[in-house]
Each structure stands twice: as C-alpha cells, then as structure tokens.
Amino acid sequence: MRSVVLLALxxxxxxxxxxxxxxxxxxxxxxxxxxxxAIRIDGDWDEPDWPQHAFRAQFAGDDGQLARPSSEVRMLxxxxxxxxxxxxxxxxxxxxxAFDFAIGPVSxxxxxxxxxxxxxxxVVAKTGFDEGxxxxxxxxxxxxxxxxxxxxxxxxxxxxxxxxxxxDVPKDGTQRCxxxxxxxxxx
Length: 187
Fold this sequence. Notes:
Layout: H1 2-12, H2 49-53, E1 55-58, E2 71-77, E3 81-89, E4 98-103, E5 106-111, E6 116-117, E7 124-130, E8 143-151, H3 152-155, E9 158-168, E10 176-186
Antiparallel strand pairs: 1-2, 2-3, 3-8, 4-5, 4-9, 5-6, 7-8, 9-10
C-alpha cells in the first residue's frame, strides 16, 4: 500500500505533460473584458463573446424599474477598440430612434440607421434589425441593435464614467425613456 501511495505522489510531481490552457476569465464586476475572438461590427451580436464575456447593463426607467421597452448596453474591448452593443426592443423602428452614449471623454448620438454624431475619427457603427422594417408603422417590429467600435485612443483606459440613454414612442403614442449610468474599467 505504501508503494502505491508513494508511486502516486511521485507521478503527481512529474512535469512532462503540458499544462492545460486556462479558460478565458468570466466577466467580473464592471471590468470590460478583452475579446477572445474577432467581433465583426455588423449590427448582429452573434459572436460568443457577447453573451459569455461582455459587460452588460439593462436600462432603468424614471421609476427605477427595468425600462419598457427594454434597452441595454454591452461592452467588450480588443487591442484597439472599445466595442459597444446597444439593444432596443421596439415595436415601431423609426429613423429618429436613437441612443445617446458617453464614456469618459467621448459622447455620441447614434440613430437607428447607424449614423453617429458628432463624427469621431475611427468610429464604426452598424445597425441590425430583427423583424419589421424601418419607418413603416403598419408592420410590427421587434428590436434593433447597433454595434460600435470606438478607438481606445479616444476613450482612454482606467475607471471611466458611462452614461447611456434612449427614449422611444411605441404605437400607443406615449414616450418612454430609459438609461444606465455607472462606471466601467478598461485595463
């Protein structure tokens, strides 16, 4: 019995086998995680990093409850860009629908067509729609997502304040607004 235990202890101390590759760290706190693969800025957040690693915050309404219609922000980073996804549930997507997004020194307005104002060098934006059509009140839309790539050289690193908001007028004609304000850390 002693020889078996001793043999097991000796075998455990061997370093012939390569160490296993560690899994990517899960998203923790308000740290904006580095991507594990390429993110294509196309208005679809179908890459695995969006649900698995992105910082995520849902918007709240003025009453402090989850905003209705639902909106959220997700953030990742790669070596050169902060990558942002802004989600909007929307039963009637119109060109004028938009998000306001500010992080650190960068403040921008992006509409449902992907137009960003003010124009910031290097910023790329694309919008994707799920069901329905832009500027057609006769159909029932579902949602839209805008993906943004903002150069880290513009945003900076460290712990940065974030403010993002959206107002929408559903088919009932009542304007509803939501927002998320907080901080994120970009390392």
